[in-house]
Specification:
single chain; 528 residues; alpha+beta; four-stranded antiparallel β-sheet; 13 helices; globular
Length: 528
């Protein structure tokens, strides 16, 4: 009897702790966020003058479907609903549920936006990337209402510039509060790109503490699940903004004292700087852009941004996001070797950087992240990825481009979804994680291809690249002609043309992904 009473008690304790916990952490590993990478580039650092932000939605739970939410008009008294996200495991695959916790006043008119799991661009070329850095646990407050995904949506529905979006965030968070852990939003418009880092106000309080730093126009920057903003100069309004309580909260909690140098990241997110899973990605992105700096892969801190050795191209960004440290000492599967026909040791074709964590233990691989290996830029659990160009010399409808890839970008391809695109191919809108495997889903096409390719990575990846690398090059090269062609059209015709193109290329790459996957099954039968 005591056995059952004890277990009932434990079950109740677990239920209570689960229902009263802070924002869900089920995507975190080893107590730290292991999610998204975002790279930003100023307009003078890109080959064509684009302002760029980006995002890899690295998650084991976020939704795999997406669509376009049109602009809307609302009646007076309409409300915008706010939700709390928590793990949900009662469907075909792990996902999230969103429980309504409040609402705020809706505005009279909202802008159209691309509704990805983390909404990413609106019709005015305002674009957002995202990366969680956690921050101090005690800053989370259940009295607050606005989380990351909802804040991104509010920014895109209501704003046209990055500065306007940051100002809106300040106004909303003062009134309704930040109900999330530390986040970095990388907010771009046609002129500039900012990193907006935000944490909660503290237990039992309503509000937020935040800082924003502009990426210099001739620089590239990165956030990889660690806070990167350090010293700030609020007199330099061209490059810094912050909440009014940025110093007082740090001072009250003993995280900083007057007279000392104030560093945002060490005041509000010091543990994030301990994560090699983050720092290694920072090193890799900045080093690939500016190898002349010879940055140390084991440093604790890197510059907030750097000037690239050469102007950044879309090809370069694709290369960065596909990276998994091959050719460096941090390729953590480099010791999975075998003898060739001449007895010479070589990397096994089965060695791949996209093994699930249980396989790391099986092959006894280790890295800067312990038994999890190295936290590379490309990941096997990416849901989708975006590289977003904002271009001020073109009409908004075509000037803003979300280059969109599904699943692991190392075996995927980016298609253009424009600021003026009003619909997507049907396969992108399938709620695939809710229903399980289906050939109707774009995400499943690329998820299957990525998972299959990883089984014999040394060989199969070349089969994928043979198809996707030239096709990606074609899409990038075609865009120059698209720009010229649609600039001459009326706004209505422009939207129709761009929507048709997004749907056409979406269908094309999904068909290719299924086709390549089927070919791999045949070609490598009995070899994996």
């Amino acid at each position: 009897m005591n056995y059952y009473i004890r277990n009932l008690f434990l079950a109740i304790v677990l239920l209570v702790s689960t229902n009263t916990m802070a924002q869900d952490k089920s995507d975190w590993q080893n107590g730290v966020p292991e999610g998204c990478t975002t790279v930003t580039v100023g307009k003078l650092a890109t080959i064509d003058g684009s302002v760029i932000t980006s995002h890899t939605d690295d998650s084991h739970r976020t939704r795999a479907w997406m669509d376009v939410t049109p602009s809307k008009k609302y009646n007076k008294g309409s409300k915008f609903a706010l939700y709390e996200r928590s793990a949900y495991d009662s469907l075909a695959m792990p996902t999230y549920q969103h429980k309504k916790i409040g609402e705020i006043d809706q505005v009279e008119k909202t802008y159209q936006f691309f509704n990805t799991a983390y909404p990413c661009i609106n019709e005015k070329q305002l674009a957002i990337g995202e990366s969680t850095f956690g921050g101090r646990e005690e800053l989370f407050s259940k009295e607050c209402l606005i989380d990351c995904q909802r804040l991104q949506q509010l920014m895109l529905e209501r704003c046209t510039t990055a500065r306007e979006a940051i100002q809106l965030a300040d106004e909303l968070l003062i009134k309704y509060g930040w109900r999330d852990y530390g986040e970095c939003l990388t907010i771009a418009d046609k002129k500039e790109v900012w990193h907006f880092e935000v944490v909660g106000p503290g237990k039992g309080k309503v509000g937020a503490v935040w800082v924003a730093q502009r990426v210099p126009d001739n620089h590239i920057s990165v956030n990889a699940n660690a806070s990167t903003i350090k010293e700030i100069n609020l007199e330099d309004k061209e490059h810094f903004m912050a909440s009014k309580n940025i110093y007082s909260v740090a001072k009250e909690n003993g995280w900083w004292k007057e007279g000392d140098v104030f560093k945002w990241n060490y005041a509000y997110a010091p543990k994030s700087r301990l994560s090699l899973a983050s720092r290694r990605r920072e090193w890799r992105v900045l080093s690939m852009a500016a190898p002349s700096l010879k940055l140390d892969a084991n440093d604790k801190d890197y510059p907030f941004s750097v000037q690239p050795d050469e102007k950044i191209t879309m090809d370069k960004l694709v290369e960065i996001f596909k990276d998994y440290y091959e050719g460096t000492p941090y390729n953590f599967v480099k010791n999975i070797k075998q003898a060739d026909k001449d007895g010479k040791e070589e990397l096994s074709p089965f060695a791949n950087p996209f093994m699930p964590y249980d396989m790391n233990r099986l092959f006894r691989v280790n890295g800067g992240w312990g038994e999890l290996g190295e936290r590379t830029i490309a990941r096997w659990y990416t849901m989708y990825a975006t590289i977003i160009q904002c271009r001020d010399w073109l009409p908004d409808e075509v000037g803003g481009i979300v280059w969109l890839a599904q699943d692991n970008v190392a075996t995927s391809i980016y298609i253009p979804v424009y600021a003026g695109t009003t619909d997507l191919a049907e396969s992108y809108k399938v709620k695939a994680r809710r229903t399980g495997y289906t050939r109707k889903s774009a995400w499943w096409a690329f998820n299957r291809l990525g998972t299959l390719t990883a089984q014999r990575w040394g060989d199969m990846r070349h089969d994928v690249d043979t198809v996707f690398v030239p096709l990606q090059k074609q899409y990038f090269e075609e865009q120059a002609n698209i720009d010229k062609e649609v600039a001459k059209m009326s706004k209505k015709k422009r939207k129709e043309f761009l929507t048709k193109r997004s749907i056409q290329l979406g269908n094309e790459v999904v068909d290719k992904a299924w086709e390549i996957g089927d070919g791999l099954w045949t070609k490598y039968d009995e070899k994996f």
